[in-house]
Amino acid sequence: MIEDRDRLASSEARGLALECLETGIEAGHPRTVVREAVALEGDTLRVGDVAYDRREYEEIVVLGGGNAGAHVAVALEGILGDRIDRGVVVTDDPVETDHVTVREGDHPVPSERGVDAARELLETADAVDEDTLVLAVITGGGSALMPAPASGVSLADLQSTTDGLLASGADIHEINAVRKHLSALKGGQLARRLAPGTVASVILSDVVGNDLSVIASGPVAPDESTFEDALVVLERYGIDAPDAVVDRLERGTAGEIAETPSPGDPAFDTVSNHVVADGMTVLEAARETAAGRGYETLVLSSRVRGEAREAATTHVAVAEEALATGTPISPPAVILSGGETTVTVRGDGAGGPNQEFATSAALALENEGSENNGTGDTNRGKPENGGEITVAAVDTDGIDGTTDAAGALVDGTTVADPDDARVALAENDVYPYLASRDALLLTGPTGTNLNDLRVLVVR
């Protein structure tokens, strides 16, 4: 999965960190989690804890999208075969399917082909009736991949607004509050178009806390955000949105445009939502891998958020405490966390939250090899194997920020000149810096998207 893995695994700690990443990501792949959550037993289709008698429906349709959308469709085809009559999923990681049409879009900034794909998806949705069972595929990345601009809003308007939000440091809840109110699909509006069909969603969550209204902007989930909330987000972060965007949000706030469907709306009477995998799925698998290698394990949280570089210094501090005092865990240990950190962009470089996390961690570890670390020896210098703490951080979809890297692997030897690392962070240009230090992790699209995964190995 990880390019040049053997070369990167130059120490036991680095090798274990990479193994934890790979097993964690693999555990969250649709081919694994969908088969655990969806089963066909005779004429009964079970999705989560809900049973459907397929004889009650004239057709079964698969609709939705996200980074893992096509892989979920393949997994569903493996269970249902030709009982699936048709479908459309939109993704940036296409794979071959037998009954479901796979259309391509782009992530994290929406594109024209995404608009065309979403249009086909909505046309298919509009043909659904009360005799249809819809398996709604909802995975991370769906917000950008299925843009479906609302009336009066252009793709360029969406792109400009999305760019501004991604660079602002706004969290995913705030970003999606805006995107929902600029879309014809998000914020429960797909459910509204599918009614009165029966909808069973199969969800891979990339959202802290599994808020259904936020995952892919909640196409089939109730939405409690409002046009006014969206306006507040733009104002809070000083987003210079296009006139068409501001005009739509203001008209919605004034009641001139219908709100997205909220809890209790009849559109959800025949909808059931099922989260089949989330960040904890990844963390549990990584923890089992580390424990199997004889390491003590600690999952800090699956809900870490905030500025990536600040989260990194906190994580390193926990590892240092473990090394120095055996609290909260005694080495050899592996400390894990998930969630979704953000980056407030002030420079004009390349990178992503996990790369900034790794760079900040590497800076914190720069002098780690020469510290006491509880051994009583204060003058050892940096060991050739990288010191006592190794840090790996990736986005589980394989795409960190807008780069081709999933994240990075660092230790006490990564930073040669601290000033270079500080400049890279200040300019939000950590990608080339990490590349020069041979620290980038490249996986390509992984087939899933379950938030970030961070691994700290304490020897």
UniProtKB/TrEMBL annotation:
This is Glycerate kinase. Keywords: Kinase, Transferase. The keyword Kinase applies. It comes from the Archaea. The keyword Cell division does not apply. Pfam families: DUF4147, MOFRL. SUPFAM superfamilies: GckA/TtuD-like (SSF82544). GO terms for molecular function: glycerate kinase activity. Coiled coil: none annotated. Residues 17-250 form the MOFRL-associated domain. Residues 334-452 form the MOFRL domain. Residues 367-387 are annotated as: Disordered. GO terms for cellular component: cytoplasm. It comes from Natrinema ejinorense.
